[in-house]
Amino acid sequence: MKYIPSTLLPSFALAICGMLLLTSTSQAEDKKSLLSDGESKFIQTAAIDSHAETEFAQLAVKKAENPKIKSFAESLVTDHKALNKELKKLAADQNVVLTKEITPAETATLQKLEKATGLEFDKEFLATVADSHKTHIGSYEQASKDHNDKELKVIVDKTIPVLKAHHATAVALSAK
Fold it and tell me: The whole model's pTM is what?
């Protein structure tokens, strides 16, 4: 076995500690979000809103009287769950914290829908979906113009036509 002078051991240990410190600092910096505050806020808001849409639609799957509305609600659940999954992944990748809490206004809307029955429920549900999707379309279109993150733009730009289709369907079903 080769002899290593005892004066080299502390230097060697110090060098290893320094390399480990640099590596952990670098990894911590990699975890930091590269998104702007506006992009992070958009992801948080979009996730909350999409979660609320999922809850509204799941309720409609159970309570809607009109089979066409029930079927529409099922497609809303599918589409918004897919969007939620994409937003969750992007948030995790960018170190953006999401909450499962819906807003007080969305909670009030959900409670109102829970109390409604029959044709009243169908009418309220469609009005809620039409109004909320109209708002979401505007938010997504603005996000498409304002935000630069490529992954976010891909999600936003592919979601806009889906939101427009949901809005159009809600309006069409309301007219019947």
Answer: 0.80
Q: How far apart are CA 5 and CA 26, in angstroms?
A: 32
Domain parsing of the chain, residue ranges? 1-32, 35-175
Give the CA distances from residue 130 to residues 1, 32, 53, 101, 167, in Å, rounded to whole numbers and listed in that order. 79, 37, 11, 22, 5
Spatial neighbors of 74 by CB under 8 A, at least 6 apart, are 57, 61
Q: What is the pLDDT of residue 7?
A: 52
Residue 100 carries which DSSP code?
A: -
CA 77/CA 56 separation, integer angstroms: 9
Of 108, 67, 90, nearest to 159 (Cα)? 90
Alpha-carbon dihedral sign for residues 40, 46, 48, 54: negative
Q: How far apart are CA 54 and CA 80, in angstroms?
A: 6
Instruction: Kindly report the CATH number that applies to the domain delimited by 35-175.
Output: 1.20.1260.10
For 53-87, letters b (16+ CB in 10 Å) and e give bbbbbbbbeebbebeebbebbeebbebbbebbebb
Neighbours of 44 (CB within 10 A): 16
Q: What is the pLDDT of residues 128-168, one digit of tens each?
A: 999 999 999 999 999 999 999 999 999 999 999 999 999 99
